[in-house]
Design a protein that fits this description.
The strands form three sheets. Strands 3-5-4-6-7-10-11 form a seven-stranded mixed beta sheet, with helices on both faces. A two-stranded antiparallel ribbon has the order 1-2. By secondary structure, the chain is α/β, with parallel strands linked by helices. It has six helices and eleven strands. Helix 3 crosses helix 5. Helix content is about 35%, strand content about 20%.
Length: about 260
Amino acid sequence: MIGSYTVKPHHWPGYPWPGSTEPLIRLGPDDGPMVVIAQPLFEEANRMRAFILAVMRDLAGMGIASALPDLPGTGESETQTDKANYLLWLSAFAEAAHQAAKGNQPHLLTIRGGALLTSWTPAISLYQFAPVEGSSLVRDLIRARRVAGTDAAFEAEMDALLSGPAPEGPLPPVMLAGNAIPGDLLAQLNHGHALSAETEDEAPIARRVARLSGDGGAADVRFAGAPLWRRAEPHQDAALAAALSADVAEWVRRCAG
């Protein structure tokens, strides 16, 4: 028991998606505000999973429900990564958020590259933790591949893929971070922008940006801590999780008015 609310066990209801039911973890009370989390992309999601669950448990302890959907081709999804694309992710996240909030508008919490996934999702508010632009995320993936070794053909492929406009059709997959990532997904992410509070059909929504103290980007609040997404293995930081969840909870209450 944290505070005055008893934390319930994790609940995995999933959310229906054409051709499958994708995984979704839900934690917290059955009523009241709902925070839907857009998690980091690719290997960063694995490194931060335990941290995200700690934030969810802390939010539940403060009487705020949260949901963590796995998008098609990510996490525990049975969809193969090479079948994913950016528009599919935008649509799936919007549907997961809609279902988690029972048809109401939720609050959104994005972590790292999750900030690239919310532009189709109507919401009451948007809280971004360590948001990263798509081009920076893609550069990190390519840099890691170069450390492992590349050849001239790979460099030429990446140059062609990322130097032009975002493609409209599918492109062959590229092996990065141990995953066969569709080329069109990489190119689309490369053009994705994280620092926006606008959705395609809605006016700008209330947005708060949080970063670590060592991050020079613009922020409304900063927290002490190390970038867990850079760790070689999953790692936990209970103090950072507690600080982040407390600020998210205060933000949600403020935006709920």
